[in-house]
């Protein structure tokens, strides 16, 4: 019996070692591209083709150039445009998603189930299939020129956000209906129940919704390129980074491209770190049935 227990412990130990080795390999595969981009952003050698993996010289000129050399690519303007678009799109998208999910979870009305089925079917098609039609609609109402391009992109990113209600609805379905009923008996309206009771109990969901709503516009290239076209003063960082890899710029801007890739990851990381506290608090303090 003792021999059998020792054999089981040894087998379990070998299994744990194998699992940790696999996880370490996967972690290295995931970290390797990130580490390479960071090292390239500090590389002093120009060009996209070098003979060594590690930089021969280190410099911060690649970062300073992004904010000082604005003759060809105005990175500060692109960064500002993207930040404005992402913030407003995030606010609107999160509101639309949470509101639609709450209504479909708590209210009962005609065409409710057909609407959810239709939304599910529409979600199977990628959004860029409609980008040409969306562009001509925006052009017809005069939103494809000048500073109105920002408004056009905000409408594109947030207009159809409510179709992605499925995850939020599933989360709201786990909140006991008795909580809503007790609040309404005490005199709360549906809006008060939603804002003062349901949302405070849904912090993990809000964190997830805000992060996804912010990251979409922040990294999108297709819609931004189609709508911005040649309006360079309205470019987003995705378009700017893409232009740095064009054949006329890649030799001199490649290392700055890596620096820009590092910089655009900072707002997402800061947002996640800021919201992580609320995510953990929500997971530990929410009342669920």
From TrEMBL:
GO CC annotation: plasma membrane
Ranges of residues in domain ABC transmembrane type-1: 79-274
Gene Ontology molecular function: ABC-type maltose transporter activity
Highest taxon above the source species: Bacteria
Location(s) in or outside the cell: Cell membrane
UniProt entry tagged with the keyword Membrane: yes
Parts of the chain that traverse the membrane: 21-39, 83-104, 116-137, 149-168, 205-227, 253-273
Main subcellular localisation: membrane
GO biological process, one term: maltodextrin transmembrane transport
Pfam family, one: BPD_transp_1
Membrane topology: Multi-pass membrane protein
Cell membrane listed as a keyword: yes
Keywords noted in UniProt: Cell membrane, Membrane, Sugar transport, Transmembrane, Transmembrane helix, Transport
Family the entry assigns: Belongs to the binding-protein-dependent transport system permease family. MalFG subfamily.
Name of the protein described by the UniProt record: Sugar ABC transporter permease
Organism per entry: Candidatus Avoscillospira stercorigallinarum
């Amino acid at each position: 019996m003792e021999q059998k227990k020792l054999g089981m412990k040894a087998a379990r130990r070998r299994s744990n070692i194998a699992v940790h080795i696999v996880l370490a390999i996967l972690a290295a595969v995931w970290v390797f591209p990130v580490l390479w981009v960071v090292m390239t952003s500090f590389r002093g050698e120009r060009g996209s083709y070098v003979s060594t993996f590690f930089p021969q010289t280190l410099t911060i000129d690649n970062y300073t150039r992004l904010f000082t050399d604005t003759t060809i690519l105005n990175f500060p303007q692109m960064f500002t445009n993207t930040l404005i678009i992402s913030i407003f799109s995030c606010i609107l998208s999160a509101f639309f998603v949470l509101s639609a999910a709450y209504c479909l979870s708590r209210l009962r009305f005609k065409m409710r189930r057909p609407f959810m089925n239709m939304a599910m079917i529409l979600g199977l098609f990628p959004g860029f299939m409609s980008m040409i039609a969306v562009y001509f609609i925006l052009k017809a109402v005069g939103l494809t020129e000048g500073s109105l391009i920002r408004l056009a992109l905000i409408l594109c990113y947030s207009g159809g956000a409510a179709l992605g209600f499925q995850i939020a609805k599933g989360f709201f379905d786990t909140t006991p209906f008795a909580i809503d009923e007790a609040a309404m008996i005490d005199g709360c309206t549906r809006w008060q129940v939603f804002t003062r009771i349901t949302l405070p109990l849904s912090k993990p969901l809000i964190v997830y919704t805000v992060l996804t709503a912010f990251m979409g516009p922040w990294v999108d290239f297709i819609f931004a390129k189609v709508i911005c076209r040649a309006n360079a003063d309205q470019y987003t960082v995705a378009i700017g980074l893409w232009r740095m890899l064009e054949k006329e710029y890649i030799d001199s801007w490649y290392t700055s491209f890596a620096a820009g890739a590092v910089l655009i990851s900072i707002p997402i990381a800061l947002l996640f770190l800021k919201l992580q506290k609320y995510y953990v608090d929500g997971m530990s303090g929410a009342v669920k049935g």
